[in-house]
Amino acid sequence: MNRLSLRTFFRGIFQHNPAESLPTTLRRPSPLRPVFTKRMWLPTIALLTLFCVYGTTQQAVEPEDQPSIPVSGTISTDVWAPPRAEWPETSAKQPGLEDQALPQIGGIVSVGLNVEISRLNGANGSTFIPPDTMAAVGPNHIVEMINGNFEIINKTTGASIQTMTFDQFWTNVAGIAQINGGRFDPRIIFDPASGRWFALGIDRAIDNVPAGGDGTNEVANNFYIARSDTSDPTGDWDNVTFSADSTGALEFHDYPTLGVDADGFYSCTQDFNGGGNESCYSIPKADLLLAAPTAANLS
Predict the structure, then answer these.
(1) Rg of the chain over CA atoms, in angstroms?
(2) 170 in helix, strand or coil?
(3) Angle, vertex CA 286, rays to CA 248 and CA 223, nearest 5
(4) Nearest one of 104, 171, 118 to 146, comparing CA atoms
(5) Which tens digits make up the pLDDT trace of 198-236?
(6) pTM as predicted
(7) Which residue of 130, 259, 260, 276 could cross-link 266, Cys pair, CB 3.0 to 4.6 Å?
């Protein structure tokens, strides 16, 4: 119903002009009828209600500004998703020898390798929220590091080669025992210049005095650094660790970043429980490439 017809409709309801209903010739006058009848006011109220509801639904409600707070929990195992549809048959020409070496789905060369590594629940689920998803790609492997899980994937086939918990990687592979409890905030990169993998994690600061803590840490948290011996992440790794804070207020150095260039290994953190500062660390890359990595020249 357009605007003109609505206007005409409501004008006919709310205005009553007997003169317009009379012909030019005289006729016998008829008794006046009320403007609203039972047949008229019920549809009118229904239309007005419909317009009000429609107008209300068009107004977007903006959420209030509030922090995003992660929650702990697991997803329902009853959630069901339909199976992925099969690729349709195609009359396109058959791939050549070069194309046959590329990943294919249903005989069609795909853009790249698609592989699912971890879920919140499942065989390799970490159950950590947030997972702090990190991964890196090397010459032949994809390495995933998340809170709770470490996994190595074959870059060509997508097959899982090695998987373990994040703590098991640090203890069993990198050879670093726990200091202040479990490790988290993973970082992983592959450095093409040196042909090595570099991994990073931290643990918690300790505030237990008095019982339950008072907001002042007695022990700072620690950095854990691992470096592979070759470009093969399934091989041996070496390690080094250092205290994130050793002077002044012992802050909790959280959410470390990771970068490597020709000269060094770099990381910065957001600091809590002491001053709300930011800290950055640098270690010469040559020191980490030694047979026994060292953080002696940490700055």
Answers:
(1) 35
(2) helix
(3) 35
(4) 118
(5) 999 999 888 877 777 777 778 889 999 999 999 999 999
(6) 0.64
(7) 259
